[in-house]
Amino acid sequence: MSITAITIENFKAIKEPVRIELKPITLLFGPNSAGKSTIVQALHYAREIFERQNVDPGKTLSGGKAIDLGGFKSLVYGHDLTRTIKLRFDLDLTNEDLPEYLPRMENGKFPGYIDELVDVIAKASNRVKSAWVEISVAWSSVIEKPLVNSYEVGINGEILGRIIASEDGRQVTLVYLNLSNPGLHDEDEEFNIVGAEGEDPNRVNYGVQGLESALPAWGESLKLDGIEYGDDSNSANYMMSYGLCSIHSTMVGPGELLRDELRNFCYVGPLREIPSRNYALELSPDASRWASGLAAYDILFSSEDPFVEKVNEWLTQVERLATGYSVKVIKYRELETDYPLSLAIMNDRLLDEEIDFKDALLTLPVKRRLLIRDEARNIELAPQDIGVGISQVLPVVVAALHRKIGFVMIEQPELHIHPAIQVALGDLFIEQVRKASDLTFILETHSEHLMLRLLRRIRETGEKTVPEDKSLKPEELSIYFIEQGDEGISCHSIRVDQEGDFIDRWPKGFFTERAEELF
Q1: What does the buried/exposed string (b/e) look like for 336-358 if buried means 16 or more CB atoms within 10 Å of the residue's CB?
Q2: Integer CA distances (angstroms), 366 to 16, 122, 331, 361, 372, in order
Q3: What interhelical angle do 388-402 and 294-302 show, nearest 10?
């Protein structure tokens, strides 16, 4: 599964809906303080909601010290508590199975026709190729805190259903159900499980039990008032439960899959830290260490030789980043001065048959030390002794090579590095998305050099003059220019053609500096 687009409304400096299409490589450009980071923060906020139902977050699961959202009052546009934050995610479910939510009877057992129900869900999974999930978060003056007051799902381009919550969160209701959505059934199947009457048969009124907001409980079917599941396939409730199985999977399933996808993102912040001199491997690593860049050292510290070699290929090879530095992980055992093996060595007793030197050595724990090698000067340095540029680019390289699925969101990957290295980063990102089809890079950047390499590879791909692992097509690249206006943030899509040229003009004042200086 992949998230193909995010639409944001009333979030921070975004007032009117802003839609960002997420391609394997997505670039966010714009002046300082224009709102580029807002897109990244919206993803952090979404993860807090879908994973922890935390609609009023400060610190986040993935943001570390770099991200403090400040709560709903700081996030809603204009700090206006009458406004509603809306987040919509478009999902590609082409190769994804929907979760199974099978009904249980009052005794906890599955009904006798369970095999048929499993078949219903399997058919729904085959039919559903795309979905969207939209949530609304509003401030409740009744409970004096925000809550998710609307959860909406669409499949295959049509709305499927909507759940809403009362202002106090005590009443949660399924109010809309599009039974004609082709994702629910085959064209020749009858599908009438609700029997709604009136002008709009899609408007229903089913209370949903066990929820405190409109957000479903993941891993569970919706507990709808008035729906009973019998064990007799001839019962009046048979068609009801038969159809509701696919509704549970198609209404709750996309939200659960979105939750899982949001878990799979790695955020590398704009200022990467250098580990302390007494750095030791973090025994309980978490995703937030990527925000400071320290997770990169955790990975290197614990990785086996093949991964370290891969990192060094990118750091040293002339056709790649050519930083002039490489990483070295030393494995060693410490001998205390009064340890029997140390005493034997010092007293020339290495041939003493009474001492099993191999066993004595193997009882000592293997320790590691991470060094950065200056290739030009042929010296080994501690990470604290290297230049700022290499300290900033190393976490970028490790994150790009280590992650295989989900988002890798990097703010200012070009920070403090030479233009030649900025250019080569383009190939790093291209090669990784070629190897991992479920990987997406979201890069908040000012680097014209990085973008020029991507444009060159598009042109060379069209000309068939570039290796497959460096090929890039226009539809695999999203470029957005973000700027601040009187009505909040606006987002301009800059399309690229097969020749690597811009189809759309850049807004005035960006990337014009070169021409002004040259001419």
Answers
A1: eeeeebeebeeeeeeeeeeeeee
A2: 57, 50, 6, 10, 20
A3: 60
pLDDT grade, residue 239 (50/70/90)?
very low
Least confident range of 82-86, 92-96, 304-308, 333-337 = 333-337
* Same domain for 275 and 158: no
**What is the spatial distance between Cα 259 and Cα 253, in angstroms, rounded to a whole number?**
10
pLDDT at 183: 73
Contacts of 477 (CB under 8 A, 6+ apart): 23, 24, 25, 26, 27, 454, 458, 496
Q: Is the same domain home to 238 and 307?
A: no
At 260, is the secondary structure helix, strand, or coil?
helix
Q: Domain range holding 130?
A: 97-257
Of 227, 240, 222, nearest to 161 by C-alpha is 222
Alpha helices in 113-217 (DSSP H): 114-127
Measured CA distances, 317 to 313, 314, 392, 415 (Å) = 6, 6, 18, 21
Coil/strand/helix, residue 301: helix
* Domain end point (choices 221, 237, 257): 257
Q: Are 293 and 269 in contact (CB under 8 A)?
A: yes
In a domain, 81, yes or no: no
In angstroms, the first-to-last Cα distance of the chain is 48
- 439: helix, strand or coil: strand
Structure tokens at 171: 């009443």
Strand partners, 268: 410
Domain boundary among 257, 292, 309: 257
* CA nearest neighbour of 196 among 215, 180, 220: 180
The residue written with tokens 């599955």 in the block is 110
Sheet with 158-165: strands ordered across: 18-21, 2-9, 84-92, 130-140, 145-155, 158-165, 172-177, 203-209, 223-224
Rg of the chain, C-alpha, whole Å: 28
Q: Which two tokens stand for residue 213?
A: 């907001």
Quick check: pTM over 0.90? no
Of the listed ranges 59-73, 178-192, 456-470, the least confidently predicted one is 178-192
Close Cβ partners of 68 (under 8 Å, ≥ 6 residues apart): 58, 59
Confirm whether 388 is domain-assigned. Answer: yes
Q: How many domains does the chain have?
A: 2
Residue spans of beta strands (DSSP E) within 315-449:
325-332, 367-374, 379-381, 406-411, 439-444
| 197 lies in the same domain as 302 | no
- 121: tokens are 């869900």
Helices (H) and strands (E) in the chain, counts: 13, 18
